[in-house]
Amino acid sequence: MKIAHTVENGLGGMSAAARLEVLWERKLGHDARLVFREDNGLGNRDGVPVADFEFVKHCDVIVSHSTLAMNEQELGIPFVLMCHGSPDYCYYIQHVAGNRTFTMQSTLAGHKNCAFVVVHWERHIPYWKQIMPGERIRYIPTSVDLDAFAPQEPNPAVLCGMGGKINVLSAGRWRMGCTPFSVVCAFGLFADRHPGAKLHLLGTSNFVGISEFLESMRLRNILGLIGVNSDDIPSLYAACDFSITSHWDAGLTPRESMACGCPVVGDIGLGCTPYMADQHDLVAFADEMDRVYSDIQNEGKSVISERTRASAVEQFHPKAAAERMIALMQSIRPVGGGAK
Fold first, then answer.
1. Taking the domain 2-143+317-330, which CATH number applies?
2. Tag placement on the chain: N or C end, fewer CB within 10 Å?
3. Same topology for domains 2-143+317-330 and 156-316, yes or no?
4. What is the pLDDT of residues 198-241, one digit of tens each?
């Protein structure tokens, strides 16, 4: 099959997910390519081919990773709409920021050329069924790049001299409606119990109030490395004992952490890790940090790392997701393929 994955340029997590799908669809023998909405340049990006809109016109199936108009839905080619985010967050960003994602998702889901809507978390389905045709919704598990995110030998130097006796990483982006505020506060309780523990933060932004909040935490001498991003996330996971996340689904950062062998403490709804508690119950969340650290001390970091990596391979292998996606697309492929 010829498969065009249309995606916005610069949307980190979404672009990475689309790239991984293209990579594995090609490994399974299909001509899948990325098509960026703002950049029709040809070539290769991170190991996968990039096509222009002409490829879209002659493909068998379109996989739309965004709701911004490229008019691909009017080509007469069946398309699959990928809903990467949760329905409540899509509604939230439209309500607060004026982004039309929520409206466009429900509109495109009802389009005559929309064959299926794919969601990555089963518990989102009842919500999506309230706003779009339920018979089109399909669940395909999310995945992670197990080659790019893999265990490494710890290198304390990556913490730039800001490491502690215990090192914890929070890599989730601080954004509207989804910040690690609660889990950072819970880490404060954990640090009270373990003097010398340090929390390293990635993904911070310029939202009002964050700098003031972090400054108050810095005065307690419990914060280490702070930055917007890193060129070598796996090495940071390797240098840390465990990570914490505010995600209540298996979002990108928890999956990457587990793939690197770094155990995750997450919200009670995360599901993919044995270490979970209500992030708004600070004592309970700090207790889970105690529990994972106790396991590391008792069983050894390498044992916990191997177990965490094995769990990521079992839950998030991209081949399994690609095979299910291909089967779905083959069920809608038009006879003869492509637009005429």
1. 3.40.50.2000
2. C
3. yes
4. 999 987 665 556 777 788 888 889 999 887 556 689 999 999 99
Domain-wise residue ranges, the chain: 2-143+317-330, 156-316
pLDDT at 75: 84
Q: Residue 206's closest CA among 183, 228, 187, 182? A: 228
**By percentage, how much of the chain surpasses pLDDT 70?**
86
Q: Domain 156-316 in CATH: superfamily?
A: Glycogen Phosphorylase B; (3.40.50.2000)
pLDDT over 80 (residue 59): yes
Size of the chain, expressed as the number of residues it contains: 340
